[in-house]
Specification:
alpha+beta, four-stranded antiparallel beta sheet, 27% strand
Length: 101
C-alpha cells in the first residue's frame, strides 16, 4: 500500500529588522528539502501586508521522508538559527487535502 502525501503549513514571524535574515535561512531550508529530500512542493511565501511573516507550504511524498528531513543535521542547524530570531515559536499545521485544484 502506498503512503499518502503529507501537506504542512509552517508559519514564522520575526522583527522587521530581521526579515532578510529570516528569508535567507528559510531559503536554505527550501534548498535542502528540494535538493536532498526531493520534496515535490516546498514553497516559501511572505505576507504582503506584514512582511515579517513567512509561510512554508510543504507537500511531502510521505511521512517517513518528512521525518528524515526534520531529523537531519542541516535542518536542525538552520532551525537553531531561525529560532533565535523569531518573535513567536513556529506554528506547524498538518493538513488534510479535501479537494483537487
Amino acid at each position: 500500500m502506498k503512503e499518502e502525501m503529507v501537506s504542512i503549513l509552517v508559519i514564522f514571524e520575526t522583527n522587521s529588522n530581521l526579515v532578510e535574515r529570516l528569508r535567507s535561512l528559510l531559503e536554505v531550508l527550501c534548498e535542502i528539502a528540494r535538493d536532498e529530500y526531493k520534496c515535490p512542493r516546498f514553497e516559501l511565501f511572505q505576507n504582503t501586508y506584514a512582511p515579517e511573516k513567512f509561510y512554508l507550504m510543504e507537500t511531502w511524498q510521505d511521512q517517513k521522508t518528512w521525518e528524515k528531513y526534520i531529523s537531519s543535521p542541516e535542518f536542525n542547524s538552520a532551525m537553531e538559527e531561525i529560532n533565535k530570531i523569531l518573535v513567536y515559536p513556529i506554528q506547524i499545521t498538518m493538513l488534510n487535502k479535501l479537494s483537487q485544484a
